[in-house]
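hiii, so i know i said id send this last week but things got crazy w the move. better late than never?? heres the sequnce for the chain we talked about at the cafe, plus the structure i predicted for it. fair warning i was half asleep when i ran it
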Amino acid sequence: MFKITQIFFDCDNTLVLSEELAFEACADLANEILATRDIPDRYTGDQLIQDFVGQNFRGMMGSLQAKYKFEMPQDELEAYVKKEEDKVIAKLVEKAQPCVGATEQLQKLYDEKKYDLAVVSSSALRRVRASIKKVDQEKYFDHDMVFSAATSLEKPTSKPDPAIYLHALKVCHKTPEETVAIEDSKSGALSAIRAHIPVIAYVGSYPGESKQSEMAQTLQELGAKVVMKDWSEFPDCLAQIEGLTPKSVI
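okay and structure toks below
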């Protein structure tokens, strides 16, 4: 049986409806980069989400370079990473909304004081903090309990690399068996699963029943054992994880 003491929350489209806003800003920069390489393809925000959901901008640029077979000098990449961060944060500060029901569940967990709470994201730390501040969720997380694969690690990376979850486990002094992660994307779920953390797959931010069912199946096939379509289901999903044995999850 799992004895869960720590809950790790992904941020984008798990706690905060931020992916569409972020990818709107990313599309302009991605298209600018492709244009400078005389590559005719162009992306909309929706198309970027289809290809790169769950990755941060640095990971997305790595994927673009691999797809279109070009190399970007490190100084140029860093300049675009900073530019993207500023553009996305501006959009989030203006328009971000919480995922439906997420804040209510955070409040219950915070009041119960039974679990330690942390955010584990691929996105830059400034962006994550701006997101949770905009939707009034930052009060549920201690200042040092917000982790970013783009910022918190000595070598920046992106999910599905498990490095950020391994780092969070170390900082929080937890084992995977004491922990559960809530993730909405393939890359996010894989990151936690590769760190041997049981995953609740949240699909409530996907549009329509068909897409939610498709993602539920995809995330279960990757190794998530519990699917949550609405945040009101969270207590039951957590109870299901706590009722499993570690061998049945990993």
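btw Residues 19-95 form one domain. thought thatd interest u
miss u guys!!
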